[in-house]
Amino acid sequence: MNDDKVGAVLVIGGGIAGMQSSLDLADSGFKVYLLEKSPTIGGAMSQLDKTFPTNDCAMCIMAPKLVETGRHQNIKLITNADLDQVEGEAGYFKVTISKHSRRVDETKCTGCGICTQRCPVEVPDDYNRGFKLRKAIYVKYPQAVPSVYAIDKDICIGCGVCSEVCGAGAVTYDQTEEKTQLDVGSIIITPGFEEFDLTKKRKEYGYGKYLNVVSSLELERMLSATGPYGGMVLRPSDGKVSKKMAFIQCVGSRDRSIGNPYCSSVCCMFAIKEAVIAQEHNPGQEATIFFMDIRAFGKEFDDYYIRAEKEHGIRFVKNNRISSIAENPKTNNLIITYISDGELVTEEFDLVTLAVGMTAPKDAKTLSEKLGVDLNEYNFCSTDILFSPLETSHPGIFVGGAFGAPKDIPDSVSEASGAAAKASSIIASERGKLVTVKEYPSEREVSDKEPRIGVFVCHCGINIGGVVDVPNVVEYAKVLPNVAYAENNLYTCSQDTQQKIKEKIEEHGLNRVIVASCTPRTHQPLFQNTVAEAGLNPYLFEMANIRDQCSWVHMREPEKATEKARDLVRMAVTKARLNSPLPKVPIEVKPSALIVGGGISGMTAALELSKQGYETFIVEREDELGGLMKRIHYELMGEEKDIQKKLKEMVKNIDSDEKIHTFTNSTVKDVSGYVGNFKTVIDHNGEDKEIDHGIVIVTTGGQEYKPSEYLYNKNENVLTQLEFEEKLAKEGKVDANTIVMIQCVGSRTEERPYCSRVCCTEAMKNSLKIKEMKPDANVYMIYKDIRTYGFSEIFYEEAARNGIKFIRYDDESKPKVSDKKGLEVKIMEPFLGEEILIKPDLLILSAATIPHPDNTDLAQMLKVPLSKHRFFLEAHMKLRPVEFATEGIFLCGLAHSPKFFEECIAQASAAVSRAATILSKDKIFVEGTVSSVNEEKCTGCGTCEMVCPYGAIRVDMEELKAKVAEVLCKGCGTCGAACPEKAIEIAHFTDMQLLSQAIAALKEGST
Amino acid sequence: MAAKFEPKLIGFLCNWCSYAGADLAGVSRYQYPANLRIVRVMCSGRMEPSLILEMFIQGADGVLIGGCHPGDCHYLEGNYQAERKVKMTKKLVKRAGLEPERLRLEWISAAEGERFAETIRDFTKQLKEMGPSPVSGDAPDIDKLMVLFAAKNAAKDFRLKLLVSRELGLVEEGNVYDEKIPQKEMDDLLESAIGYEMARCSIIFSIRDKALSVEELSERLDLPTDKVLQHIVTLRDRGLVILDRIEEDTPLYLAQEEGIK
Question: What is d(CA A837, CA A830) in angstroms, rounded to the nearest whole number?
């Protein structure tokens, strides 16, 4: 590796993964260049309407990240550009980039859009999958970052009108391609994926021939509020609302005939989500999903699947691959033939959606050649999947997101963070050398001024505007006391609106700002930052939640929703008038971490933290490290298949690492403190030991369920998969002739309705091992759905090729096991339509992965939530998968949900990356919402001290007055509520503020 | 026909659980009636009885306090504090002649969007069945409103605040003698303190512009004369009531300004 290292990273691809990598790196002290081919970052996620399993609006949750990426002082966006050439090696790469001409000056364009209105040339808009037209000068989508237009030279006729109407003088027809050279220390590639080319299925499914056959991405655009049909699902043939739609799964996936034998991992959930949302947009919509296996393997995916079936009445039809679609030429309806109860059935649908598979990006080959990284046989990025899932074949170059293998958003986000940790660890010595620190303008003095409030009311596309009469709310706001300015915005969170808010603050001398849009829980920081950039203290900002708690929950009562929105704005105005500036308190950060649990995730996190230069304390309950990894012996993928050898190697690396301190036979007894300054008491071999640390990573892992069914523990020939694997590893041979495996034992049951994710692949692994050791063995696998997602599908194929027999069951036809006359398994064979009897020598149960029992106590000590299945519940299922809402506490691995080695490693690296955004700072700033004591009123009674659980307020025994330790104060307000003398105020939630806000809710004229 | 009664419902929700639960109801599009207006607080422990009572005075038909499930409080035990306070507030509400069911404390987690919507549907339905609060609307019951004022002032009083704030500690952890006060004893103590303080606040209200005698007060407030006299003594001690004048043999008392908040 090069000695002249550079503290900068190049990220290639500006989708959700690229943005996450960039933000992590930039927030932990590195300069980032984010290279994006198209004129706009945001990637595929920007095109989605909603995301599973929470039905969050994709744009809503992504917008803050878009804006943050766009305006981060340490991220340089290089859009509309391609990679030319890379030289050098890990630590120091010289990169050449070609920035194509936009023919619009990025520094001048304001994104006002007048050019687009006047442009006379129209072309189908690829972003909207051709359902809409765009102009020759355009932006991809309304919230685009950067909010800069671009001319599509291929269709521009050069009429000159855009230049004439552009007030900013930004149009520059003669702008040429620019070459830029950059020095970076490492590279992350996150180019995403390409949709499978459906025209290859034109013959079977009539895509491109029958107008009412669409792709799942096309349906998504229809469902999108900002899409061509404003959220309605219309038949492209006649514009009628679809009433009866069908989905055909696995188009371009699990299909060796077209060269894509792998599973695309996301399409099942994607289709279920689309069916649910379509029904939400159009009550009464019928939807049928034709599937081979439903692969709802992620966290709380099965709950979503169950709800879709039970509550939304989505019809699921298990079938072999649907072979073809015919069209009724009169109605343009589509005719699907399938097998139901052994009979051939023909059914007509008015719209058919093909669940389009993921393929490698189009330019994967050129990219791999320029970077010198290997691809796998399907042109995805090749990695040593098992233990280095984020490392490409080229040192110093890392991969994240769908380019490594098809995957969903949370897994892509985890990998992107993980890749950031990997990319920064090799240049850790250069941290902080190339970054600039954000300076805000000095704050305007407002205390001596009458409030002048600006109100910005958001349409949120049609999310709010489709229910609430937004202009009416704006007019109403204008006449409220102290409101100096009010306007509405299509998206108040977009980057151009941020600019506008700042301008309006200046123009109208605003000293309070209200945004009426969505929830402060996600969007307040964005707007607070905007007002701070305009010189206002962030606490002069206030939000009214007219979406989550108004338009979305009163969809069928638009008048009442509008009235409520007016009330909510009035309440916010009332509160804002009383808002005052609050200082932020700086706190020191201890650059060390506590890791609870020493399995694969905890060990990975410790090793990665050490590479980043931070000290780590691992607390492990057992007498040695390893966790569940101790029970795994061999694997299907990866270079090192001997897991125990790998485990020994990891433990050795940990033991010899000076920065890692391991405490085995230890448990956490008490956790106090806060981000940057935790103090934890552990029980170490029966003695208390205190550890000071800056952050916590929860890696408690999971356990294999001990089945109570199928004669487990009653018959010695009934084993779990892990026990069987241990037996195989120990004995090195297979004695049994006939072996039955039962899947989903303890998973996907009423008690535990989640999927344990790994068991299908584990069963393939073990059955292939049996066949390897004893080729003539009979192996039966009794399953509900085979969920070998991604490239694991290849092993399912292989198992089938090797003669493993698969028999499907469901909750009504569970296998029956008895051992009165030797072990017997009775199972309904659905294709034969009759019960068959198998007499196995060995019955292997794929037992569920269950949460660690320690989770409950630890969650209480850390004050972090658990999911309904008792795994830890992260801050946000899509975009914050490895952290809790409480700052400074992270999670990864099986503590989060069941997953594979490589996923644990990616998540552990991700947790380290997120942690580094805190650990890399000497000081962080705590919110100003703390309590304060009016010493004149305080009698020193000590009631506050009694109720404060943080010891943040204590009576000074000399002065007999209560004193607040602001660093410890969390701003809950309990002391203020308890104080008998009314001597305590809670900043930003004062009595006056709460009372007036609440009274404003009840009385219209009370402001 | 009179317009259909639409109850006014105000909710104080903690930022971490209930407010997030309400957001989740939104994200999941669980529909519920548009009667609720939400005020976000950081913790349900921030709620104080006088604030809740003020909501009824201002015309709320129902008040919802939403906090984290027991053990889940982001601030460790703010929700337990809220539980004690709401319990006491319900007693005050009841004494004011309002149905205590108009005040609800619910534990709703960030993962319970559906439960949140269901809670609002149910609470709204219940309030519709109960009809308007006697002190809401255009023609509030002035007598009940007066008692409610008294209840609010009692709730603001040092004594009740101190007792309710320390109840959790005294019952669960122990007092300065390392003794735990039995819950029953604490309940009785609170009950009597509530009765006394409300009576005292009612007395102050009755004599805020016009001096009255013990007998007149006894009649007006339906309290035994000896009790009224006892309260007058206490209130004079606290400097909240003065002897205005003596007419014939009958002393007349008048409230001091600081007693009338």
Answer: 13
Kindly list the distances between the CA atom of residue A286 and the CA atoms of A246, A266, A278, in Å, as whole numbers in the listed order: 8, 22, 9
Restricting to A residues 608-627, those with a Cβ less than 8 Å away from any Cβ of B are none
Q: Which residue has the tokens 């030289």?
A: A87
Q: What are phi and psi of A834, to 5 degrees?
A: -140, 160
* Interface-testing mutation among B28, B61, B261, with chain A (most A C-beta atoms within 10 A): B28
- Answer yes or no: is the ipTM higher than 0.85: no
- Taking the Cβ of residue B127 and every Cβ of chain A, the question of whether any pair is shorter than 8 Å is answered with no
* Regions of chain A short of the pLDDT cut 50: 1006-1007
- Residue pair A416/A400 in contact by the 8 Å Cβ criterion: yes
Domain limits, chain B:
9-130, 157-259
By C-alpha distance, the chain B residue nearest A989 is B41
A995 — contact with chain B (CB < 8 Å)? yes
Compute, in degrees rounded to 10, the torsion defined by CA atoms B125, B129, B133, B134.
180
The structure tokens listed for A313 are 């009445």
* Prior bond of A53 cis (ω within 30°): yes
Taking the C-alpha atoms of A373, A374, A379 and A385 in order, what is their torsion angle to the nearest 10 degrees?
Answer: -110
Please report residues of A whose CB lies closer than 8 A to that of B25.
Answer: 548-549, 553
Which of B10, B34, B40 shows the shortest C-beta gap to A560? B34
Report which of A189, A197, A193, A195 is spatially closest to residue A374, judged by C-alpha positions: A189
- CA–CA separation, A228 vs A430, rounded Å? 48
| Shortest CA gap A94–chain B (Å) | 45
Q: Distance from B31 to chain A by nearest Cα, in Å?
A: 4
Rounded Cα distance between A445 and A448, Å, is 7
**Identity of the residue numbered B249:** D
**Residues from chain A contacting residue B39 (CB–CB below 8 Å):** 571, 994, 997-998, 1001
Q: What is the dihedral of CA A39, A40, A41, A44, to 10 degrees?
A: -100
User: Up-side HSE of residue A798: CA atoms within 13 Å toward CB?
Assistant: 19
| A873-899 residue pLDDT tens | 998 889 999 998 778 999 999 999 999
Type of residue numbered B64: L
How distant is the Cα of A578 from the closest Cα of chain B, in angstroms? 15
Provide CATH code, domain B9-130: 3.40.50
CA distance, residue B223 to nearest chain A CA (Å)? 27
**What residues of chain A, 541 to 570, have a C-beta less than 8 Å from chain B?**
545, 547-550, 552-557, 560-561, 563-564, 567-568
Q: How many CB atoms lie within 10 A of CB B67?
A: 33
B234 touches chain A (CB under 8 A): no
Q: Is A214 left (phi over 0), alpha (psi -120 to 50) or beta?
A: beta
Q: Using a CB-CB distance cutoff of 8 angstroms, which residues of chain A are in contact with residue B158? A: 980-981
A863, A868, A885 member nearest B76 (Cβ): A863
CB pairs under 8 A between A and B: 178
Classified by CATH at the fold level, domain B157-259 comes out as: Arc Repressor Mutant, subunit A (1.10.10)
Q: Report, as ranges of residue numbers, the positions in chain B whose pLDDT lies below 70.
A: 1-3, 71-72, 258-261
The number of residues making up chain B comes to: 261
- On whether the CB atoms of residues A174 and A387 are closer than 8 A, the answer is no
CB B108 within 8 Å of CB B66: yes
- From the list A18, A65, A58, the residue with the least C-alpha distance to A38 is A18
Give the 3-state secondary structure of residue A458: strand
- Between CA B240 and CA B258 the distance in angstroms is 7
For residue B224, say if its preceding peptide bond is cis, omega within 30 degrees of 0.
no
Distances (CA, A) of B189 to A178, A1007, B175, B181, B202: 81, 40, 15, 11, 20
Residues A320-351: tens digit of each pLDDT = 889 899 999 999 999 999 988 778 999 999 99
Contacts of B156 in chain A (CB under 8 A): 982
